[in-house]
Protein: NUDIX hydrolase
Amino acid sequence: MKSLRTLTGLAATWTGTETVARLQVGVLPTRPDPEGGGLQVLLITSRETRRWVIPKGWPMKGLKHPDAAAREAYEEAGLIGRVDKRAIGSYFYDKRLKSRDTVLCQVQVYQLEVRKQLATWPERHERESRWFGVPEAAEAVTEAGLAALIRAAGARRKGSRKK
Structure:
């Protein structure tokens, strides 16, 4: 993660411009693997490019960041669960705007222990969702920083089972 920030800063220096990332908040939706002791991660497709991503969006006025991230999980995937109050990390990506311009975003990610997925939710006809094992989820996403967060969540789960 630190090296990605360094590269972003170097790129800004080389171009003579200062790149300021815009903050987004998101959740890493997880549940115990029903087949064994591992962890599963729910990914959704983005609306435009149909790539695999996590539920995320802009911070919301009047809501703390973890609560705004949990709201995004409900709106984009119909997820209900317990969201951690501390971020598990962050990653960077280029968001394509409606104007076709791109903006650098830093997504602050909170783990969401999913308790249920509703039958209906606001964006159910706009996205697909699917549960993945940790290695498959990390391979499915295109952002290296997000893949690293997914792998780290899986490693934390394994470490907590040994105790």
In short: The first strand starts at residue 22 and ends at 32.
